[in-house]
């Protein structure tokens, strides 16, 4: 099995603005010692560092990529947005949307981030690699066509999909988003289409506050091809695996994509400052194992994971390492130092039963033909 790992040091140089967590500094909001948004380079850099130190990086096909070209960007984003982004970037930076600050050169970094995702998808779709992980930064799943949003400046996965389609490499693509926040950008881009299945497994009403509802199932030709699985806080390891088994995997099996892409955020982990979901490194490992089995059954194992959120500098590297261990079939491990503690902190049996019942109800809901649109 050949697993690609796409990264570029320049993506670690993307800079956030004058924020304290997600609050603009000013009035009564003091700056944090670390400064900026929680979407910092350190979670990603430390993941790459851990891969190097453990020796797993040596078993991967390590690659960078060329930036996504303008024609690829314009398949998703209007030209006037791209022009404004470039002009602001050249002038020293700014903020185009909501919580999307960038410094000088931010445009070039974002285009490179999209390029990493695009090349990972291209290489897997062509059969050059069995599967791949793109350490894209800045992330992309919140970005709407005309409005950057939630740390996301360009819609990396959508750009990669549209490029693969334009090159005749895929017809049907499934996107599974297990970032803890709703994948509203990816959903919006493909909401009225049936050639891309979008599935978002997220903490309910975390971010954005007004998207991600169960009833939002697409419209027009896309009706029934958008699936939201909103979970209340505190779900934990077994809840995520149950949601995968009861909703996600059956949806993938019904759709039979040519390629599966995972919007791979690690912010559902128990140590993330922006979530309350209690997932562990093993949660992400087991979900990877599940989706790999689905990919093997329906699209020759063609699977790409594109990095999204995850804001615990200490814990994200162990989550990412577990995923890439599974993805590559490596015997090299980086044992989760918090595994015993997190096993104790998982929801009790009564709470897990509540979550299981809720997910079973969702599965029944999705088994019925969608209404409206």
From TrEMBL:
Gene3D superfamilies: Histone deacetylase domain (3.40.800.20). GO terms for biological process: epigenetic regulation of gene expression. InterPro entries: HDACs, His_deacetylse_dom, His_deacetylse_dom_sf, Ureohydrolase_dom_sf. Residues 38-325 form the Histone deacetylase domain. It comes from the Bacteria. One of its GO terms (molecular function) is histone deacetylase activity. Signal peptide: none annotated. Belongs to the histone deacetylase family. This is Acetoin utilization deacetylase AcuC-like enzyme.
């Amino acid at each position: 099995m050949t697993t690609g790992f796409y990264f570029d040091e320049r993506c670690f140089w993307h800079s956030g603005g004058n924020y304290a967590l997600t609050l603009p500094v000013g009035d009564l909001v003091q700056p944090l010692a670390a400064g900026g948004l929680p979407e910092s380079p350190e979670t990603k850099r430390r993941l790459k560092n851990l891969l190097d130190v453990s020796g797993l990086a040596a078993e991967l096909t390590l690659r960078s990529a060329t930036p996504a070209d303008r024609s690829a960007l314009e398949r998703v984003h209007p030209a006037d947005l791209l022009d404004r982004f470039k002009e602001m970037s050249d002038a020293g930076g700014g903020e185009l949307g909501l919580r999307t600050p960038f410094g000088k050169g931010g445009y070039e970094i974002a285009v490179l981030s999209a390029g990493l995702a695009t090349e990972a998808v291209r290489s897997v779709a062509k059969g050059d690699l069995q599967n791949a992980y793109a350490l894209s930064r800045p992330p992309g799943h919140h970005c709407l066509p005309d409005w950057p949003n939630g740390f996301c400046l360009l819609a990396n996965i959508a750009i990669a999909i549209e490029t693969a389609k334009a090159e005749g490499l895929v017809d049907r693509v499934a996107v599974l988003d297990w970032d803890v926040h709703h994948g509203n950008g990816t959903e919006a881009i493909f909401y009225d289409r049936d050639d891309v299945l979008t599935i978002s497994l997220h903490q309910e009403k975390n971010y954005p506050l007004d998207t991600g509802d169960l009833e939002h199932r697409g419209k027009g030709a896309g009706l029934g091809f958008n699936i939201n699985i909103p979970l209340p806080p505190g779900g934990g390891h077994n809840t995520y695996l149950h949601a995968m088994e009861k909703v996600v995997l059956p949806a993938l099996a019904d759709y039979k994509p040519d390629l599966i892409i995972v919007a791979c955020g690690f912010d559902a982990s128990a140590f993330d400052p922006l979530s309350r979901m209690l997932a562990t490194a093993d949660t992400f490992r087991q979900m990877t194992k599940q989706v790999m089995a689905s990919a093997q059954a329906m699209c020759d194992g063609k699977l790409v994971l594109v990095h999204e959120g995850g804001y615990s500098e200490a814990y994200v590297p162990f989550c990412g390492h577990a995923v890439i261990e599974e993805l590559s079939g490596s015997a090299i491990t980086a044992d989760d130092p918090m595994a015993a503690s997190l096993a104790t902190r998982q929801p009790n049996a009564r709470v897990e039963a509540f979550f299981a019942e809720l997910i079973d109800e969702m599965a029944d809901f999705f088994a019925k033909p969608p209404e409206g649109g």
